[in-house]
Amino acid sequence: MRSNVTSCLAWRLYVILDRAAAQGRALPELAAAAIRGGADVLQLRDKTASARSLMEEAKRLLAVTRPAGIPLIINDRADVARAVGADGVHLGQDDLPLADARALLGSDRIIGASTHTLDQALAAAAEGVDYIGIGPIFSTPTKPEYPSVGLDLVRQVTAHVRVPGVCIGGIDRDHLDPVLGAGGACVAVVRAVCCADDPEVATRELKMRIEHFHRATLARSL
Questions:
Q1: Catalytic status, residue 143
Q2: Which candidate, 178, 88, 164, 98, places its Cα nearest to that of 133?
Q3: pLDDT exceeds cutoff 90 at 222
Q4: Are strands 72-75 and 88-91 parallel, antiparallel or unpaired?
Q5: Which of 17, 100, 159, 208 has its CA 20 to 30 A from that of 50?
Q6: Is the pLDDT at 199 greater than 90, yes or no?
Q7: Residue 114 is a catalytic residue
Q8: Around 203, how many Cα atoms within 13 Å sit in the side-chain half-sphere?
Q9: What's the average model confidence in pLDDT over 195-199?
């Protein structure tokens, strides 16, 4: 198994630092809080930023994530990920093709892809993606253009796709257990951390619940 895939398999909580959702909060401060709370991986997402401003923000975040040993993924922009030395890129269905992103970034960077159907998930896995995003599981204002796919897709992907899956879309403390119960090994959150009164506490509560679920599942299987 490729080393990137192996590292992604260990993820439990994936925090997306979304400029719009943060509502003026400094992203490096949010990143530091999420890391203290136990986030396994962070993503920088800013759909409206210029390449220059996105690079500057990514460099500020790397100054926080790199010493902590936490991967930083850049949403959409493989060129920015390469330029700043980020750990990888997350691609949407309409972004740069995976083969081109891999040629740009090399084999040591992580590449994830958003998928909204089982066929898309299977195709991404066949193309060599390191992890897939599954969603949006629930309706979310951060992705209003996509209808929710529901928990059935989590079950289907878990059963048929052999690369790590990250469940995303409207997931918060109240929706966490059904996603985990459907087979989600890792969940991605946006507003649950970016909009929380205390992002560190919110991250820690989510991570503890995820780890408790997986420990309990393992104990039942023994």
A1: yes
A2: 164
A3: no
A4: parallel
A5: 100
A6: yes
A7: yes
A8: 25
A9: 97
